[in-house]
Amino acid sequence: MTRNPKPPIRADHVGSMIRPAPLIAARQAFDEGNLEAAQLRQLEDAAIADVVALQERTGIGCITDGEYRRHNWRDGFFESVDGFSEDKVESSFIFTEYSGAQRRGMPVPVVRDRLTRRKSITADDFAYTKTLTKGLVKATLPSPTVNHFFAGDKALEGSPYEGLDDFFADVTEIYHQEIADLAARGCTYLQIDEVPIAVLCDPKNQAIVRARGEDPDAMIDRYIAVINAAAAAAPDTLRVAVHMCRGNQGQGQASGGYEPVAERLFQGLDVDGFLLEYDTERAGDFAPLRYLPKGKTAALGLISTKLAELEGADDLKRRFEEASKYADLDQLALCPQCGFASSFQTDRFGQDDVERKLAHLVSVADDIWR
Predict the structure, then answer these.
(1) Residue 255 contacts residue 230 (beta carbons within 8 Å)
(2) What are the two backbone dihedrals, phi and then psi, of residue 110, each rounded to the nearest 5 degrees?
(3) What is d(CA 244, CA 82) in angstroms, rounded to the nearest whole number?
(4) Which residues make beta-bridge pairs with 82?
(5) What is the pLDDT of residue 149?
(6) At the N or C end, where does the chain have fewer CB atoms within 10 A?
(7) DSSP reduced 3-state for 99
(8) Which parts of the chain have pLDDT scores under 70?
(9) In order of start, what are the domains of the chain with their CATH numbers?
(10) What is the pLDDT of residue 3?
């Protein structure tokens, strides 16, 4: 298939995969104290080898470990860093399911001491995956912004931090250490998973932030600066892409296109590319792509990881024709709108469905860029 030298590559994916049922059960048993860490590790190793083979069969442009060692996409930072209390603050933001039912997002831990990196967040996982394949292995990290956004300043009450500048300086240092670790282990493609900026495109979420006593517009500017500060640690050999997401269940946590942030996002973020949610109308139209600078790429998330049905190849090609009115086709790529499993419990369809979706993605990308 056609390869793009700068990630996101022509046929990309966001990273996480549906876990096999035995691994879901094992993680649950471990969390309940009924399975030893060494036993869980052994099961994870075998499952990761299988999911790497699955990706290789599809011909997808990059390989991940499926995030099989994680509880969910976000909490690896909290679990790898000292300074957090076991106390948690509820998220300010609401998920809406397809049924209309609503629930709050995952709670976040409270900061009690200055943050320090205790262990690798994802570098160890990357290193193991790299031993299993000759393909391009992608590492994924939650954005540094998730350490503040979901509860806001409330999560810092009682901490030793004098303000957000002080707090994010420590967060940035932890990301610098992690990125240096990844680069030293041979990582050439890093994806940063960014939810807050996309969620803040929705006026109702802007109102929630204002009700907390915070300024959503200033928050977006700060978050762009924080991501840039973290990504600045990447050497020339390491390409960095930012994945934008509004929530990977039902209608998610937000609706509204990228227009309110597009110019700042695409021209202000000092990264190599973007993976953008675009599977439903809640992500808006392609007009914001007019701000995509030359030399940067955008993978359009037109493949759903929430619905098992395959998207029509002709429909996907038509949407790329629409997008190419705003950005050169050579700057575009194809990906799913999000990962297949944002948490270890996710089992909305099987691994056969995942393989079928990825193979379809590769086939369509080959046709578009043949």
Answers:
(1) no
(2) -90, 140
(3) 27
(4) 116
(5) 86
(6) C
(7) coil
(8) 1-8, 92-105, 247-255
(9) 21-368 (3.20.20.210)
(10) 35
